[in-house]
Amino acid sequence: MKKKIVVLTGAGMSVESGLRTFRDADGLWEEYPVQQVATHEGWEADPTLVTNFYNMLRKKCWGVKPNEGHRLVAALEEKYDVTVVTQNVDNLHEQAGSSKVIHLHGELMKVCSSRDVDDPRYQITLTQDNCEVAPGTKAGDGSLLRPFIVFFGEAVPLIAAAAEEAQEADIFIVIGTSLNVYPAAGLLHYVRPGVPVYLIDPNPISAGKNVTQIQKGASEGMRELSAKLM
Fold first, then answer.
1. From the candidates 93, 103, 105, 189, which is the catalytic residue?
2. Per-residue model confidence (pLDDT) at position 29
3. For residue 16, is it left (φ>0), alpha (ψ between -120 and 50) or beta?
4. d(CA 64, CA 92)
5. Model pLDDT for residues 96-148, shown as the tens digit of each residue
6. Cα(107)–Cα(148) distance, integer angstroms
7. At what angle do helices 218-229 and 68-75 cross, to 10 degrees?
8. Is residue 105 among the annotated active site residues?
């Protein structure tokens, strides 16, 4: 039976692919205030602005490819049972070949009912050739189609499933996240005592004495860690 690896990834996982982070000094929140484009109140106030913002993000996302870090995470499946838990809304892990991905904060390539976000009947997966939603487009239940994104202040519906995965991990890897965003950062508390935890990030992060940090970017750090694990 294969050992289980759980990989928690954040914005630093995708930055090498050319996707800007939201929180860094040159991040998207500098141009687009979070209150306007990533809250329920912002959606209610101006759904056209929010719809067009995520249309823009989708077009940018389709213009980039998985980086070596994404591919090396996917390659772990050759020897391990791997679950990726990501805070990212892009689909680069899936493009790289990861077969089990839990998106904590939603999926950029999906839209859904604004009346019932989690009703699968009204969730639509957009394609590269059809990745824009015209403002005012309705879902099957008659409500406006909204991005399938967990807005700030909304519950994170998949956090319980992610916590169960963390509890079962034989190895836990964190890549490209400052561990400041909850509830995702709290997943470390579900890892069983004695389970090796590796943290890959170019910035020094205080994550506990039992965490081994590889202070490198996602691709370089995964090369180093893969050499140990594979």
1. 105
2. 42
3. alpha
4. 9
5. 999 999 999 999 999 999 999 999 999 999 998 899 999 999 999 999 999 99
6. 6
7. 20
8. yes
